[in-house]
Amino acid sequence: MAQIIDGKLISAEKLTKLRQEVAEFVGAGNPIPHLTAVIVGEDPASQRYVRHKMVACKEVGISSETKWLPANTTQDELLQLIGQLNGDDNVSGVLVQLPVPEHIDERTICNAVAPEKDVDGFNEINMGRLALDMEGFVPATPLGVKALLEHSNIATHGRNAVVVGRSKNVSLPLAILMHSDGKNATKALDATVTICHRYTPPKELARHCRQADIIVVAVGKPGLITKDMVKPGACVIDVGITEITDEKTGKRKLVGDVDFEEVRQVAGHITPVPGGVGPMTVTMLMYNTLKAAKTQAASRLV
Ligand code: NAD
C-alpha cells in the first residue's frame, strides 16, 4: 500500500518556517512583504483560491489585498491597474488570478506584471529564465510538486518521469523543472521526462506511465490514471482538481485525476486530493512573495 504524501502537513511545516523568515526579515528593518491579488469576474473556484492565498498570507505575516474587479472590466483597465501595482513600492508581489474573462488576453496580462513582482512566474521573462536554468520566479504548483518529491525523498536523478498535461502555466514549467540540471540555479530534478497530452493515444499514455518511476498528472479528468497504468512502487503526484457530486452523499467534493483507491494499492507514494499538491501551491506562493520582497529590498540597497 502506498505511503501517502501529506501535502497539508508538509505545507504547514513550510509555512511555520516561512513565518519565522518573514519575522526575521521585518525584524531587520525591512517593510512587511505585501501581496496584491487581482481577480476579474465572479468565478467561484477563483474566488476560493484567492481566499486561500489571503489566509496563507495572514498565517505567515505577509500583508495582502485583493482587488475585486467586475467581469466587464476592459483589458486596458486591467493593464492600467497592473501598471499602478508594478510602480507601487509598497507592493512586493502581484498576481492576477486566472482564468481572466474571454475578452481579455491572458498572455498580455501575464506579461504586463513586472518580472520582479511576478510571484506566479507566468511572465514570459520568468518562464524564459526557468527554461534557461536561470534564477527567477518559478510557478507555485511546479515548485510545490518539487518540494513534495524532495520532502518525501523520492529519487529523481536519472529516473523516468511522465508529466501528463502540457499547459503553459502548470505542466510545461513542471516538465522543465523535472528534467533540468540540478547543478544550475533552479536546482532542478535531473529526471528523464516524457510529456503526454490530449493527443497522446490512451494506449500510449498507459505505456509511458507504466515505465515511469514518477507520474505527475495535471489534466482535470477524474479517473484518468488507473491501477494498470502504474508501475509497482512508482510515485504518483496528482495535480488535477475537479469538483464533482459524491454519489453516496450528494455533496460536492474535489477529486484529482488519479483513481486514488485503486492506484494506492500499487504505487509506492501517492498524493491525495484534496490535501496533496493544493496546499503546497499556496505555500510556494508565500515563498515567492517573500523572495520578491527580499530581492526588492536588496536592489534598493545598491
Ligand atoms: P489545462 O486545461 O490548461 O491543461 C490540461 C492539459 O491536459 C492539457 O495540456 C491537455 O493537453 C491535457 N489533456 C487533456 N486530456 C488529456 C488526456 N486524455 N490525456 C492526457 N492529457 C490530456 O489545465 P491546467 O491549468 O494545466 O490544470 C490541470 C489540472 O490541474 C486542472 O484540474 C486544474 O484544476 C489543476 N490545478 C491544480 C493546482 C493545484 O494547486 N493542485 C494548480 C493548478 C491547476
Automatic annotation (TrEMBL):
GO terms for molecular function: methenyltetrahydrofolate cyclohydrolase activity; methylenetetrahydrofolate dehydrogenase (NAD+) activity; methylenetetrahydrofolate dehydrogenase (NADP+) activity. Its EC number is 3.5.4.9. One of its GO terms (cellular component) is mitochondrion. Residues 139-296 form the Tetrahydrofolate dehydrogenase/cyclohydrolase NAD(P)-binding domain. Keywords: Hydrolase, Multifunctional enzyme, One-carbon metabolism, Oxidoreductase. CDD domains: NAD_bind_m-THF_DH_Cyclohyd. It comes from the Eukaryota. Residues 5-120 form the Tetrahydrofolate dehydrogenase/cyclohydrolase catalytic domain. Homodimer. This is methenyltetrahydrofolate cyclohydrolase. It comes from Drosophila guanche (Fruit fly). The lineage of its organism: Eukaryota, Metazoa, Ecdysozoa, Arthropoda, Hexapoda.
